[in-house]
Amino acid sequence: MLRKKIIYIFFLTIFSITNLNAELNYKKIGQWDLKMGRNNFAMTSKTWHVDVMEGGTLTLGKDKGEIQVCIEDGHLYGEPNGLIWVELKCSITMSDESKIYLEYSAKLTPDENFLNNLANNKASSAPDNGLKYWFAEFKMKTTSEKYAWVNEHIFLGKSIELKGDTTGKGMGRAFYDLYIFEN
């Protein structure tokens, strides 16, 4: 019995080490470019906010879609690093009229320049231009046969640019490259 346990532990250890050394396979499949800044932002408490955003594009390969609306629910953590955590639910219409429902969650850690950049409509990016850290997780759902593949993936959004808009003209943006992971 002891011998079986030792053999089991040995093979379990070898299997675990092999999997730890496996490469992470990923592929860029598109971009998310959300327009921001239409004066719909509202603080609902000292640390929670909501926003409604309209416009922008979702690119999947050579196909593009228009972002119809996004509803954002966000939390501003004061400590330890001023973390901002936002969750959005969005509706997109692709060029062939297919509908995609998208949810995404992003975490941002601002640096000492972030609020100044935001207030002055300047672009921020990670890791050294207003943000120390900024990535997002995207999930998409559709009934479209053409885009059915999006139902099977979790997407990683690598941040490119975050820009505020104090004018209310929708000139701000949250811009990401989108990646999928492959086995």
Order of helices and strands: HEEEEEEEHEEEE
Write down the overall geometry. globular
Count of β-strands: 11
User: Which architecture per CATH?
Assistant: Beta Barrel
* Strand arrangement across the biggest beta sheet: 1-4-5-6-7-9-10-11
Structure description:
- The chain is mainly beta.
- The protein has one domain (24-182): Porin (Beta Barrel), CATH 2.40.160.
- It has two helices and eleven strands.
- It has an eight-stranded antiparallel beta barrel.
- A hairpin with a 7-residue loop joins strand 5 (63-76) and strand 6.
- The two termini are 36 Å apart.
- The model has no long low-confidence stretch (mean pLDDT 87).
Topology:
Elements: H1 2-20, E1 25-36, E2 42-43, E3 48-53, E4 56-60, E5 63-76, E6 84-94, E7 99-110, H2 114-119, E8 123-124, E9 131-141, E10 154-163, E11 172-182
Antiparallel strand pairs: 1-4, 1-11, 2-3, 3-5, 4-5, 5-6, 6-7, 7-9, 8-10, 9-10, 10-11
